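[Q] Does anyone have a clean structure-token version of this?
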Amino acid sequence: MKRPQSVLVLIHSPEGDILLIERAKHPGFWQSVTGSVEPGESLLDAARREVAEETGIVAPAERFDRWHHSSRFEIFPIWRQRYAPGVTHNTEHMFSLCVPRNTPVTLAPDEHRAWRWLPWREALDAVFSWTNRDAIRMLTQRKMLRAGGS
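[A] Here you go.
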């Protein structure tokens, strides 16, 4: 059974493009890297593991930016059978990882069928999850603050 604690890792380029991956069993469901936190695993370790498993990108811990932000949401009914009976909500913890667009991506074919880089505005429209849209919006605000408004 999955734990109702997960990570979302928004992978982006220095230019602000967003890497999205398409779910294998649900074509048209584009998203950032997500995954459940395993028992005894830290949030950072879960973020690193999920990025490596889902994209093949292996990055050191210091490259991950933990946002200290989480969202609680209702688990879609189609995915509830993965959780203990009665579990209906999940808490998702946000991270980001900046990599060059030419970073090789290797998908786990049982989980994802395609990947693409999109400008952040297009990525907003492509993702199916409101928490993913919120993360993209927050990334643009974080980048503007760090870059002095650019």
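[Q] Thanks! Anything notable?
[A] DSSP finds three helices and seven strands in the chain.
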